[in-house]
Please model this.
Amino acid sequence: MEMKQKIKQDTSVAVIFLIYLLSCIALTAGMQCSGIAPSYRFDCHPEADVTQLKCQQRGCCWLSSKNLDEGVPYCFYPHDFPTYEMGSPEQTAFGYSVVLKRTTKSYYPNDVMQLQMDIYFETSYRLHFKIYDPRSERYEVPIPTPKVSKRAPSTDYKVQFSKSPMGLVITRAVDNTVIFNSTLSPLIFADQFLQMSTSLVTPYIYGLGEHRGRFKVASDWKTYPMWSRDHPPQVGDNLYGVHPFYLNLEGASSKAHGVLLLNSNAMEVVLQPAPALTYRTIGGILDFYIFMGPGSDEVVQQYTEVIGRPLMPPYWGLGFHLCRWGYGSSNRTLEIVKRMKAALIPQDTQWNDIEYADGRKDFTVNNSTFAGLPDMIKYLHASGMHFIPILDPGISSTQPPGTYPPYDTGIAQDVFVKDSTGKPLVGEVWPGPTVFPDFFNNKTKSWWLDQIKSFHGKVPFDGLWIDMNEPSNFVDGSINGCTKSSYDNPPYTPSILGGSLDAMTVCASAIQSIGKHYDLHSLYGYSEAIGTNEALVKVRNKRAFVISRSTFPGSGKHTGHWLGDNYSLWPDMAYSIAGILSFNLFGIPLVGADICGFNLNTTEELCQRWMQLGAFYPFSRNHNTIGAKDQDPTAFSVDMQISSRNALQIRYSLLPYIYTLFHFAHSKGSTVARPLFFEFPGDPKLYDVDRQFMLGSSLVVTPVLEEGSTNVTGIFPKGIWFGVNHGTHFQVNSTQAVTLPAPLNEINAHVREGCIVPLQLPYKEGYTTTTEYRQLGFTLLITRSINGPGSGHLFWDDGDSLDTYENGNYLLLEFSSSETSMNSTVSYDGYSGSHAVTVQSFIIATVPHPVSQVTINGTSVAFDYEPQLMNVYVNNLKVPMQFNFYVKWEWQTQD
Model:
């Protein structure tokens, strides 16, 4: 009894002492917490169970108030929170190296007490720095990046080392704009918790994917988690891909820069209105690249120089694609193809979802319903069309021995991801219990090639659709659960969907050939895309066409992407624009959304509007789910079929221009789809625009995104804008909103002044494939240049052979124009295609006066002038494009 009372007294004394101690800490902290504005509070307790006691035990500030905006942390760092001390920077051949040491442990286990920071002055426009443990090797993202050993002689940036507060400050050399400043919040680098914050120049920040939302990322205390996850897109959730890259506008200067954190561990990025940004990741190292632009498209070019330039798709891959889960048979699939053809609706590629496979098993065919698949493909190929099936990574593991070669040979060759005991990890996907190939294993790539080659011998497909590769799992972790280790239960879990690393995927403790799934999870789709692309090239000896759901920086070199399992809802259509703009930032320009929506039943009006919008996606595919109604254009009224045909005919006519954009994406990393501010920088009215978009520098698309609307309002910068539907135009003298008529059967698309756009306009109505369109001569659309010289390009090759640009087997033309003339100059000619490249017609738009003469290379040609439209039409030509030529037009002026 006395002993119990003694313990009770001692406990009371301890509690009193603790309260006294905390009050002293609070008093001291009060001085260190004063003057920190709410927008500059950096969260010291990101876990959800924060209390004042827990906060102050960490030595942090606690100030709560009902007047604070939502998201402002109550628990935040004081000015003097312990962090690393910076040593003296030492010059190296590539820049600097600095030692960082801490003497006080953080509140996360296993601090790395000594770090090294290496700063690489890689090019004049690219700075690279990484912070790592010099005494112990840690995981680094295994994607190829440029290696440099020599410092750039001059740079667009300056680097400053701050010892108190400790951090790195990077500024733009020309105007001292602070691009990156890590002194605002303490650096934490523990084994499974790494945190760094930086200021932002403005709140105009874009990227940080994959997430559903507006194109401009919200900076009002929004958290963006990153961890590849299979889940229908919802605002705020981490989705299929991981892209820790952002582009930040610098305000009135018209400049922009980009930042990449090359880290693939589970992560979250928090934005606050300072403006500032905080990274939290639970593994690897801090490996940053800064891209100085200064143009927005230049930032993307510089980014893709590091992660890899986008692939050059085959020309047919830019045609219209059609798919659904639920055709039921190959005969039904072929029926839809023929129905589309009879309606004269352009289509290049037919797809089949998982239903074609026997028991939904990869590399099999359901012979009761899809026995006619090879004959269907034969019909497609004879019609100049193509076929793509789906492949999921999950390989059925429960078939009788000797009956399913993909599993039998995979086990024999040891190609599957293993659980913590060293046995193949078993999850569950469409075929039931499954195992998962380890695509980082070279043996797996060889095995995957064998399976694709064997399957192609039976089903001669032209591309592959790789789905479910987050990797998706219908059970959390495995059918046997996961371990109790810190890999499966880290000390901190970012705010990812499901709250745990194994939610709807495999265990983080799973073993792959080059490391733990804990590190490699978000790279799974990336690694599969590489193996699939390489296999397709070897099997077909043509360009690979791959569309992947899960992506990572560098995926665009090997695959395109679709935006996942969206819904047949008007907001989903609107969000798709932000999605394609974001993925163009991420170096994956071959991107689109499921037109008309995947889940739920669409309506005719929604589908009609979405077919119009989807005709301008870089990757254009209509796809929907099992159990839903058909939503191909022929499933609706004749009016719907006509408007879909018209929209797709515009797309097919524009394909020479779009294909040229992909060439510049492939050769120098430019975007294909881009926001208006890329082309009109420094205009704040454009910074939030994501209900319109541009294809390249010439074309603005303004879709109807609201039910029942018969007009649409878009934002247009100063200039003359030529409508591709009717040849009409309008002019604005400054950036302003313009309300345009938008009848149900039309979409608004406008070419800006001073552009030369190569087109292929069909002679007759029956052309429905790129195979047919590519035999046509070209039409050059010239929009009159009044504010300086006009320009344009055409890249042309055979559309399917490997490495035509790299091997010099192409034609590149450069167009330039003035108010009364246009020149075509051959920049490079290595093209030896079977069809002559000729101009069949010209459209000279917005000529203000009747034209008296048009000459080509000095020779007069017949023409028509339409006074109401103010357009000149020159037809029935056959001008060789592999020689320089010039066009002039003279108009009659009134005295």
Summary: The longest strand covers residues 821-829. Residues 2-33 form the longest helix (32 residues).
